[in-house]
Predict the structure.
Amino acid sequence: MGELLKIDHVSYTYHNPEGETQALSDVSFHVNEGEFIAIVGPVGCGKSTLLSLLAGLLSPSSGYIAINGMDIKSSGRNIGYILQKDHLPDWQGTQKSVPPGPEIHYKLTNNSYVQINELLNTYGLITFQDSFSPDLPSGVRQRATLIRTLLLEPDILLLDEPFSTLEGQNRLEAAEDIRDVIHREKKTAILITHDIPEAIRMSDRIIILSKSPGTVKKILDIKLFLDSRTPLTAESEPEFMEYLSEIQKELNYLSVQN
């Protein structure tokens, strides 16, 4: 797998009437095609700002973001952005809730509903096609949101705390669902999360940011060797606790730095 995304010495400063606030400082890393990256760090370290930069919603104050060697805004590549709240319309059934993304991007074709039904069937949502969004379990809503995003054929998926409204087993099962879809569709994904075990369960690499202004303090390769590794089985591996301890120690160190 070749390098798909490159973040090269990126900094970002917010400007307001009271002055300037630097959110990110000299951030550099790369993401390979098909890789699942998690980004963690102390509260206020600039994780969401970084995701907004990767989505093209903000432009770096300095530095460079490139996809396949081209500036992210002129690369012609699609970026899929999944937020904490799914934003599915509450007044439409699942089948009709999925298309608005493609409609906004003028990509809805006569074949779109065939593709929608194929995706709903593949990922276990066909029985919910006539269900209204408020009646759906949270995990099902997230899967529907992911399908909605996949219809845009994104090259990179950005996941902004997508499971933060879920708890316990529901959160684990939703994470497993989403990771399975992403891997089966061979997508590249970047997740930000405050949940360290979740980052380990989901990702191939974890990027640890310092406290504000955020910069890369450590990049950790996650190698869990269970043949059928999933978010539900990852914690059974002895390496899991080693990664958890290492990341927690790093974050505790960062929190006490002056």
Q: What stands out?
A: The two ends are 40 Å apart (CA to CA). The longest strand covers residues 3-16.
